[in-house]
Structures are given as structure tokens and as C-alpha cells.
């Protein structure tokens, strides 16, 4: 805790930084200017019972003014930043994936619960990636132009107007998009069926 002199010095510095005159401070805390002058001249002890009033007038906390450090209780926590991730719907041809016309909604997430990087969300329709990614689930995708062999990617197909989720497999210079559900056929990437990888699937959410 600060001494009387340290409290007065701190208040004086704060007052000068904020361009608050003695008269104005006296008005804000409802103290006679003569009394306040004695505090700043250090000829009278600062009244600790008025700490809250002075702290509020100077725009600081009472703890800061008094120099009180306290240990944070174990059950106290400070929430992480809330970020809003766009959920992509039908994709307009030729537009960037995150263009406003492609976004159905923004969903809030706590930053510490999602992976790093620029993220988008996709609503999954169909069972081609079940059981791991079932119909009706929502997948977070980190935007990146390529993925490693065997990873699940979000891929633009049908003239870059539809996003699908498939496992990327490369073999003998050829790329295939493999569904996890064996009932569905793989997509062979050719000049006639070009695709564009937009990101890597990094997290899936679904209701039980």
C-alpha cells in the first residue's frame, strides 16, 4: 500500500495529466479548496475514507490509488475474446469466399476454443463424410490454398459455386477427393472437373 506522500504525488500527477485544476478537483469531490490544498501541500493527511471519491474524480480505481495488490481468487476468471466466424452458404461465382453475399450468418465463438488462423464455417448437408462428419453438422475451416495428403479439405466444385468437404488423396500425379462414407464415389480431378481447395477442416460441431 502507498504511503500518504505517495498517494498525494500520484493524485497530483494524475491531476496534471488530465489537466484538472485544484479548484475543479475540489468541486468534483465536494471538498473545500483550502482543505484540498493542504492535502497536496502534505500538511494534512489524505482522508482514506474519501478514496473512492478521489479515484472516481481522477478516472482510476481505489485499488490503484492506494497501491493495493490482491491475489486473484482461484474461482475468478477473465473471459477470452469473442470472435464472430462467418458461415458460408451458396457461393457467388467469381467472388472471394468471404464476400458478404456468400455469408449466411456470423456465429460467435470464444477465441480460445477454436484453432488459429482465418476461419469460416460450413453447414454440412449429406452423409458423404459420415460417421465422423454427419449430416447437419457444422465444420470450421481454416482458409489455406492446400492441404497435406489424407487431410480433409473444403473444396470448391461446380464452377466454384459449391463447397464440398472431402479427403484429399494424391497418387501418380493425380488428385482425388475421397468421401469417408464408402457408399459414395470419389471425385477424380481432371481438366473437365477442376476443383479449388479453399481450406482445411479443423473442427466439427454437431448435436447428439
How does this structure look, described?
With 208 residues, the chain is of the alpha+beta class. The chain folds into two domains: 4-66, 434 Repressor (Amino-terminal Domain); 82-205, Umud Fragment, subunit A (Ribbon), CATH 2.10.109.10. It has helices spanning 4-17, 22-29, 33-40, 51-58, 62-66, and strands spanning 82-88, 103-110, 119-123, 138-143, 152-157, 162-171, 174-178, 187-188, 196-205. It has a nine-stranded mixed beta sheet, with no helix packed on it. Strand 6 (162-171) and strand 7 (174-178) form a beta hairpin. The longest helix has 14 residues, at 4-17. The radius of gyration is 31 Å and the shape is rod-shaped. 17% of the residues are buried. The model has no long low-confidence stretch (mean pLDDT 86).
- What share of the residues lie within helices? 10-25%
Shape call: rod-shaped
Report mean pLDDT, rounded to a whole number. Answer: 86
Query: What is the CA-atom radius of gyration, in angstroms?
Result: 31 Å
Strand residues, percent? 25-35%
Runs in which pLDDT lies below 50 for 5 or more consecutive residues are: none
Strand order of the largest sheet: 2-1-3-4-9-5-6-7-8
The appropriate CATH architecture of the largest domain is: Ribbon
Q: How many extended strands?
A: 9
Main β-sheet description: 9 strands, mixed
Annotated CATH homologous superfamily of the largest domain: Umud Fragment, subunit A
Give the class-level CATH name of the largest domain.
Answer: Mainly Beta
Order of helices and strands: HHHHHEEEEEEEEE
* Through-space gap between termini: 54 Å
CATH topology of the largest domain: Umud Fragment, subunit A
Number of domains as seen in the coordinates: 2
Structural category: alpha+beta
Number of helices: 5
Amino acid at each position: 500500500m502507498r504511503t500518504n506522500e505517495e498517494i498525494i504525488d500520484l493524485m497530483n500527477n494524475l491531476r496534471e495529466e488530465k489537466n484538472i485544476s485544484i479548484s475543479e478537483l475540489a468541486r468534483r469531490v465536494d471538498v473545500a479548496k483550502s482543505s484540498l490544498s493542504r492535502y497536496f501541500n502534505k500538511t494534512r493527511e489524505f482522508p482514506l475514507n474519501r478514496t473512492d471519491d478521489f479515484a472516481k474524480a481522477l478516472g482510476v480505481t481505489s485499488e490503484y490509488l492506494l497501491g493495493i495488490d490482491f491475489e486473484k481468487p482461484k474461482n475468478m476468471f477473465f473471459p477470452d475474446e469473442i470472435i464472430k466466424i462467418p458461415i458460408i452458404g451458396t457461393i457467388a461465382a467469381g467472388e472471394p469466399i468471404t464476400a458478404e453475399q456468400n455469408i449466411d450468418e456470423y456465429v460467435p465463438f470464444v477465441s480460445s476454443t477454436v484453432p488459429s488462423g482465418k476461419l469460416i464455417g460450413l453447414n454440412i448437408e449429406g452423409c458423404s463424410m459420415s460417421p465422423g462428419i454427419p449430416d447437419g453438422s457444422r465444420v470450421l475451416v481454416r482458409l489455406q490454398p492446400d492441404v497435406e495428403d489424407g487431410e480433409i479439405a473444403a473444396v470448391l466444385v461446380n464452377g466454384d459455386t459449391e463447397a464440398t468437404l472431402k479427403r484429399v488423396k494424391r497418387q501418380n500425379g493425380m488428385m482425388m477427393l475421397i468421401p469417408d462414407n464408402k457408399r459414395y464415389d470419389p471425385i477424380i480431378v481432371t481438366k473437365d472437373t477442376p476443383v479449388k481447395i479453399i481450406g482445411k477442416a479443423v473442427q466439427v460441431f454437431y448435436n447428439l
